[in-house]
Amino acid sequence: MTKYKLRSAALDVLLRVGDGGAFSHLLLDQTIKSNQVDKKDHALLTEVVYGTIQRKLTLEYFVANFVKKKHKLDPWVQWLLYLSFYQMVYLERVPTYAIINEAVGIAKERGHKGIASFVNGVLRQAQRTGFPTFDSIKGRDERLSIETSHPLWLVKRWIGYYGYEKTRSMCLANLETKPMSIRVQPMQLNQKEAIAELEQDGYEVAPSFFSEQGVIITKGNVLHSQLFQNNQVTIQDQSSMLVAEMMDLQEGMQVLDACSAPGGKTTHIAEKLNNTGGIYAYDLHEKKAKQVKQKAEALALTNIVAKAADSRQLDQYHAPQTFDRILIDAPCSGLGVVRGKPDIKYQKQEQDIHKLATIQTELLKKIAPLLRKDGKLLYSTCTVDREENEHVITAFLNEHAEFEVDPMFFETLPSDLRQSSGISAVGLQIFPDDFGTDGFFLTRLQRKNG
Ligand SMILES: C[S@@+](CC[C@H](N)C(=O)[O-])C[C@H]1O[C@@H](n2cnc3c(N)ncnc32)[C@H](O)[C@@H]1O
Fold it and tell me: Contact at 8 Å (CB) between 144 and 167?
């Protein structure tokens, strides 16, 4: 694929993400497949698409500096300018003349000569004068919002919760590339063996302290490795791996996974049970339950029953105090994973958080009675927001005097996490700038005297 076609494909993805709201990682995978993008070009296409979305607010600010009536431009012209500016500012290895030539070619093909000459003029002016700094933006919060490309409401919300310095640090971390991590299938090999095999194949890797099954990939595309192709490892963020690690699982247990699709944590739980006991894995729709079944099959795990149901109604199928362990990996705003899924930060609105907090509270209220007397319930989200995390737990505990946070949860955390600034009386908030992982919240509840 020529570099020109590659950028044209990137523009198609951006247009659909920008205007249709489709998730970028899914669309990118489809584009790579349908355009038969060479393996060597995957990285550039991915970088241009993710980088442009990641920096969208900054790029809008740059474009507004050169084009007075930006809103009058067709969306594809706007995105072509963002895409080109992204490369000019952040991709030093791509020569500016090539970026301009290709943008002009795309503009000619999709529009007409007039648009091509407009695009040429804008890009050449930026090349001549350079890009504006952020100093002239009035207001500290506004400046942070544009400089790090996080919506102003989110910046203000995080500052309110965590202070300016922490917010700035999180916003900057969200612009960096996160190393991929994998979870080793323990019935096939262990962390040490996986590390040895990957190193032998030229990967640079390190063990994760979040999970004895976790391996961090610092160099190399693990999707191309034999271990991944043979289903001996699965892709999972380290924070997400901590969830099953903190469930205090033992062989033979009966487990409920109330929000299970696509099955990352269900299969981890199944592995920790060494394929014994039983896991009821629920999610809202048949299609989602199928994802869990497929993941279980791929990893040769047979202790999972995946079903479609609204988990707020599980009392119809299961008697009170049935399960040894329960996981509520709740639907959430996903603000802890914007580094890997940058479109989330523009799609989510503050009202979504309020709605999600209501669902989370309902899930907890309806599911907690299914926990056995001496059982443990783990609540987690992949978001950084007190309303969905600490406040949901606090409100639940205020209304359910028979439950408490399990003090052993804190004592059994990996030691680096025990020192973390995200520890509170009701759980652990992992921030995206703390350990190079996704932002996550987790806590463990039990019945008092349990
Ligand atoms: C954070 S995701 C779960 C990720 C999953 N635990 C994993 O590790 O792969 C939350 C899931 O909750 C599901 N969900 C939302 N509301 C639900 C409900 N009322 N009952 C059951 N599942 C629900 C969503 O469909 C979504 O798949």
Answer: yes
